[in-house]
Design a protein that fits this description.
Chains A, B: It comes from Paenibacillus soyae. 2 copies of one chain form a homodimer. By secondary structure, chain A is mainly α. Chain A has helices at 5-30, 33-40, 44-51, 54-77, 83-98, 101-115, 117-141, 150-170, 177-190. In chain A, α4 (54-77) crosses α5 (83-98), α4 (54-77) packs across α6 and α5 (83-98) packs antiparallel against α9. The radius of gyration of chain A is 19 Å and the shape is elongated. At the A-B interface, α1, α6, α7, α8 and α9 of A face α1, α6, α7, α8 and α9 of B. Chain A binds a DNA duplex through residues 1-5, 7-8, 11, 32-34, 42-46, 48-50, 53-54.
DNA sequence: ACCATTTACATACATGGTGTATGTATGTTA
DNA sequence: TAACATACATACACCATGTATGTAAATGGT
């Protein structure tokens, strides 16, 4: 029985992967630690050693999912030069990433309830939210949203995107829900001038 | 031991009140049925008789809170004649009502996680959401939001309002968070023409 | 008015799930 | 190589929900 550092890391990673699947499929409440450790091939001892308790495990999973989405958004947004176009691309990238089952259930639905809204909010702020607020501030300096509070706008937009992602994910696969939502964003943010990324209308 | 119909209704109502307090203060997961029934002066039998299980009890509480907020929004919105002004008043009324602890914790945070997003969404649709969508459709007929999908806009706005309420509630009491959010709404929905309800700027 | 049935609970128990205390073998460090 | 820390395994305590069962009162039909 060898238990080197790398073995330990692999155990932790495997537990994280299995936990992520179970939290996604069954939700936090119905996800069983015993089932998770069994599927990961270890016992409860390993799980509690690495993550302290169920909430600690969940929090780690949340951070991982958030980081994934954040990278996606950053990468897509950086493909443009114009700040407003960056924002639009970022919003689209977020919606595309957030409709994934893991993001929906873990991040958007269970996250706030399990961790508490404040903790969840702080975690989100350190990832996606912060970039969103910076981008909106930048845009305001360029003349957009004259006189409106950037923090208020940031939270407004963030909430809108979260709920929209949940709605889009629930629509039939061939629906244009994501495109429709992007149209809403374009209309509200830019007064419907150009920038429509698709050919409609 | 008298157990008439009215006694039964009163028992159910008392349980609902106590449950609402406990769900608000401790959240769904940490709210204990035993503590609730003890505080209501009955046993677990009464609770399970009236509400089936913990989730059933919670769902009833959610419906009650939703109904309260819905009434508030409807009443305030109906104070205006102009459809856009009705929308604005409705949004403000929602924000003012949704910052209450019970609304935040039960409706906005725990609701989707406990009931599942789809169930929660359907319940919300039968209350506030439906009116919002109707109002937005009406406005579109009047020339607002040309070409945008009303369902998409409805969900976008709904999510924005929910998150904004949570944000506002968390700000220091003397902050202008609610007013700032209203400014955001006015700016995005109406391109910042008039309708500012306060004297700023 | 009386019987059958339903209602409105109380009580007791089965079950499952988390957390924690303890044990133990291995790796690591001085 | 001795001491300590790490990485788990095992066993158990402890709630908390849910369910089965019991029971007294209310209700409804005849």
């Amino acid at each position: 029985m060898r238990r080197k550092k790398e073995d330990s890391l692999e155990t932790a990673a495997r537990l994280l992967d299995v936990a992520r699947e179970h939290f996604t499929e069954h939700g936090y409440a119905k996800a069983s630690m015993e089932v998770i450790v069994a599927e990961a091939g270890v016992t409860r001892g390993a799980l509690y050693h690495h993550y302290g308790n169920k909430q600690g495990l969940f929090e780690t999973v949340v951070a991982a999912v958030q980081a994934e989405i954040g990278e996606n958004v950053e990468r897509e947004a950086s493909r443009a030069e114009d700040p407003m176009e960056q924002l639009i691309l970022g919003c689209r990238a977020f919606l595309e990433a957030a409709v994934a089952p893991a993001a929906r259930r873990i991040l958007l639905v269970d996250g706030p309830a399990v961790l508490g809204w404040e903790v969840w909010r702080r975690m989100d702020e350190e990832n996606a939210m912060r970039h969103l607020e910076e981008q909106l501030g930048l845009l305001q300096e360029k003349g957009y949203f004259p006189g409106v509070s950037v923090p208020a706008l940031t939270h407004f937009l963030s909430g809108a995107l979260n709920e929209s992602a949940l709605w889009i994910a629930q629509q039939p696969g061939d629906s244009r829900a994501l495109e429709d939502t992007m149209e809403v964003i374009l209309h509200l943010l830019k007064l419907k001038t150009s920038y429509t990324t698709d050919s409609r209308r």
